[in-house]
Amino acid sequence: MTETVRDTKSARTRRRVVDAAAHVLLRRGYAGTRLSDVAEVAQVQAPAIYYYFSSRDELIDEAVAVGLDRAQSLVTEALAQAPAGLPAIDRLAIAVAAHLRTLLTHSDHAAAAVRTVPQLPEAMRERHRQAQRDYLAVWRGLVAEVRDDGDLDPALDPGTALMVVLGALNWTAEWWDPARGSLEGVIDAAQRLVRDGLAAS
Amino acid sequence: MTETVRDTKSARTRRRVVDAAAHVLLRRGYAGTRLSDVAEVAQVQAPAIYYYFSSRDELIDEAVAVGLDRAQSLVTEALAQAPAGLPAIDRLAIAVAAHLRTLLTHSDHAAAAVRTVPQLPEAMRERHRQAQRDYLAVWRGLVAEVRDDGDLDPALDPGTALMVVLGALNWTAEWWDPARGSLEGVIDAAQRLVRDGLAAS
DNA sequence: CGCAGTTTTTATTCTGGATGAGAAACCGAG
DNA sequence: CTCGGTTTCTCATCCAGAATAAAAACTGCG
């Protein structure tokens, strides 16, 4: 509990391994994540990983946990920095931007977590269910605020609408190519669609 | 060309294998698709698969091809059946419904194809690129029609908006649970979001 | 030097794709 | 109904690649 955070060389190596795991996980999926590939990316011999983790699954597990945590905290922070009294629909737009930024440029972990969770073995998914729920709760809260402001189309089921919106965001990781379109362009399009899509006609 | 379609027992077994491959592919991803699992689902011994396909990749390849083809044709058919002269935005709504129905209830193949393509090895993805483009072209056409009708928010980039929308649809396969919500509910929410989201403010 | 912490080397085991020899099922001709 | 050939599939096994274990070697600090 005391000094786990100290940035020793060992801690940096360990971090490199987790980062590499997220990197590979994101591109290859759960089953396709080979320790040899992770090792290569992390600039380490494959068995060295076992000094830090007792199994492949444990490593992947941590990469996913980091990802979920990062998504949660980056979005939460972005919301915290918003000026007080902002209409809920604007806060939602902030969350949309933060989620996309995290997914697309800030964190392989978050992207890997979001996109890989469904493929994980049941036991592992179970372990992250709570974190997932917590993150979802943030969004649900935002949607509820929007509804209370009267800015949500009453014909929309809030839960379903939320999942549809999150899907749009999560899927960007599959197609967005930094070389071809700007991140801001994607964010802008997503925000417009969400704003107008949710709005009461 | 002549009688490849005849429904012999052999043809049925073969189909079971492809179906099983799609089933596993959808849940486990490309790397996670084991022939032993496919065999189990198809009620066949694993080596029997090699009677029909010369390699694992060839089997997966076919499952994906079937999926892309099915998505394309189901959506195209739905559009063809729409009354002539329907506003483009309504035709788009029809496509949304057809895509969701295909993905969520009609075809594991389509869902597997749509969700797995990004994970496939380059060579294989290459082989399906054309089919993918063709399917995308249908959507692009619809969006262009909507724009020509003046129903598309001019601030939206049509290409980006389309990908965001398709993402919302494709991701439904990750979360929608037939046991908990009705398919119609999802379709309705998606249609509303698309209609209002794309509309010129 | 000497030792704790870290990493590499070497060896072992496990998993899962693939193959090949032939058994069983099927089928049409006599 | 039975025989020969063809189609379909099974069984045993192989093999490569990957995870893991064990042991050896390195590294920097006291």
Automatic annotation (TrEMBL), chains A, B:
<dbReference type="InterPro" id="IPR050109">
    <property type="entry name" value="HTH-type_TetR-like_transc_reg"/>
</dbReference>
<keyword id="KW-0238">DNA-binding</keyword>
<dbReference type="GO" id="GO:0003700">
    <property type="term" value="F:DNA-binding transcription factor activity"/>
</dbReference>
<protein>
    <submittedName>
        <fullName>TetR family transcriptional regulator</fullName>
    </submittedName>
</protein>
<feature type="DNA-binding region" description="H-T-H motif">
    <location>
        <begin position="34"/>
        <end position="53"/>
    </location>
</feature>
<feature type="domain" description="HTH tetR-type">
    <location>
        <begin position="11"/>
        <end position="71"/>
    </location>
</feature>
<keyword id="KW-0804">Transcription</keyword>
<dbReference type="Pfam" id="PF17932">
    <property type="entry name" value="TetR_C_24"/>
</dbReference>
<keyword id="KW-0805">Transcription regulation</keyword>
<dbReference type="InterPro" id="IPR001647">
    <property type="entry name" value="HTH_TetR"/>
</dbReference>
<dbReference type="GO" id="GO:0000976">
    <property type="term" value="F:transcription cis-regulatory region binding"/>
</dbReference>
<dbReference type="InterPro" id="IPR009057">
    <property type="entry name" value="Homeodomain-like_sf"/>
</dbReference>
<dbReference type="InterPro" id="IPR036271">
    <property type="entry name" value="Tet_transcr_reg_TetR-rel_C_sf"/>
</dbReference>
<dbReference type="InterPro" id="IPR041490">
    <property type="entry name" value="KstR2_TetR_C"/>
</dbReference>
<dbReference type="Pfam" id="PF00440">
    <property type="entry name" value="TetR_N"/>
</dbReference>
